[in-house]
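Note to self: keep these together.
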Amino acid sequence: MTFRRVLIANRGEIAIRIARACRESGIESVAVYSEADEESPHVRAADRAVLIGPAPSSQSYLSISAILDAARSTACDAVHPGYGFLSENATFARRCEQAGLIFVGPPAVVIERMGSKIAARALMIATGVPVVPGVTAEDQSDEGILAAAERVGFPVVVKASGGGGGKGMRVVRDHDSARMLIPAARREAIAAFGDGTLYVERLIERPRHLEVQVFGDTHGNIVHLFERECSIQRRHQKVMEESPSPALTPAVRGAMQAAAVAAARAASYVNAGTVEFLLEGADDTARFYFLEVNARLQVEHPVTEAVSGVDLVRAQFTVAAGGHLPWTQEELTSRGHAIECRVYAEDPEDGFLPQAGQVLLYREPAGPGIRVDSGVVEGGTVSVHYDPMLAKLTVSAESRDHAIARAISALRAFPVLGIRTNVPFLIRLLNHPEIRAGRLHTRFIEENASELLSSPDPPLEALAAAAVATVPPGLSISDSATAPPDPWGTIRAWGR
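Structure:
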């Protein structure tokens, strides 16, 4: 079985990345777009495009009926959800199946099984995969959750069963604060997931966050594609990822990878997914604990593609069409080191406030070992309606030190004007001696904020003035035939 036409139920850089994989696979692609995205690059990246609604995502990218109507009207065979939006929505996956469309991802039953953190935790315990010590309270009242926290012993983490991205989660350090934080976690969980069910885990102070890429097919084959280190986070959202992790010894790495495959097999997992773990301690005595399964393609999948040399999206198409995995575990190898930095339209100096507006200048770095997945272009607009990520910069090299150096060099060649970005922040992050030494943990940004947020960078206005000053009167920077070399390629202080 092969696909003739695939609808991409997403936007931005991931929609462009899926459209590219479609083209390389000989599959026609159909983009969907909201009224705010009519001129967005992902619309032009696909072979066809369909308007699905107004700017708010609830009326467009989260509208199951609008997306299914678009798929039917264009005679699509399959739907790829990308990540975010409806990618882990079991109802959407089931509706696709009922409409005769192949959902390029795990089946609805698997999404449901993994969507409940409590059910996933119970499955892992039954499978023998280590989990963080904790309690799932039968009494779901605030008093019942408080009693569970007291049984586990403070400090604890109160988590939403249907959670993700840090929503519905609170760190509770004592009895008094619990009375305020437990209701707050429940309210947030209901608002985000429509489910206020909570559970309690022991708090692991300053853990590392690692994840293992897994892939299964409908013929019972399951493999792992190595691990990614995702410890550098801000408010539980990943900022930078790398592979391999600098923390793991061969023994711990092998045990974690085996646990990830066991977890995927227990869930009868199909297609691409990620098994996430917390790591406590160091060396061969380090202990890892199951955190959750992400039943979709991850934002940071280019890191795995860089070290393994495979195309995960093309493999998704193969498996969704009923084929076998393109590789056996023995055929998969990890080479060199890869690092991904998420470039956001945000102002780190102002509490990472998201930015919106027109992108007046946007130049991506290029060169050996540099990959940029982006969803914006110069002259385009960053909307207030969607996530402010502009691009993912992924670099690969033969060693971690070289990869860090390459990432810094690439970020310094990544000027953006019109809106503020976190590029200078990312450079400071990569230059930090603890990052270079590989001593990472999930609270690193929080604990080193005073260093990372002290900006010695020249103001953007000064750089803009310097660039404009090099252009003779009457010429445009974009007039490549007559203008001098692009000044943004010669300003050495950019992003330092």
